[in-house]
Write a structure and sequence with these properties.
mainly alpha; 2 helices; elongated
Length: 56
């Protein structure tokens, strides 16, 4: 378990070693996030059996 006194020095050390060019490059990259994963036919199962639904 880390000591809370070391946490602030770790943050300070990380802030001192910042690479501005890398940060700018990372911000410019257009990454697709939270894209739905394609499921196989076997994986595409309904959560509720359509025959039992009452909201139709």
């Amino acid at each position: 378990m880390s000591d809370t006194n070391n946490d602030s020095s770790d943050v300070k050390k990380a802030a001192e070693q910042v690479d501005n060019a890398q940060i700018e490059k990372n911000l410019e990259e257009k990454k697709e996030i939270d894209a739905p994963e394609q499921l196989s036919e076997e994986e595409q199962t309904p959560f509720i059996d359509d025959d039992l639904r009452t909201d139709k």
